[in-house]
Amino acid sequence: MHKSGRTNKKRKIKKNSRAGQIFREAALSIANSKHSALSAFYKRMKAKKGFRHALKATARKIAVFYYRIITKGIAFVEQGIQLYQQKLKDQQLRLLQKKAKSLGLQLISG
User: Fold this and answer.
1) Reported pTM
2) What pLDDT does 5 receive?
């Protein structure tokens, strides 16, 4: 509100939708599972950004999978935690090699 008592028309009120609540609850149940790639993603985000951000990011990921299944008919296959961790390790290695190259260094695997 302004000092004059008028409301700010630019500010929008955020509302939590029912679908969003469903996806957040699904993300919370996935967070408690042990052997899924989504649970590994949740744990990584929780360590990095905290509980709320991790929950929202995981819920969004589930919503994207749901959207792809409904609109395009693409089947969702759980890949498991091992494949997720391997992809993450490969990604980190690529980024490290790129950073070393930009600094004029060379990586030696051991």
Assistant:
1) 0.69
2) 72
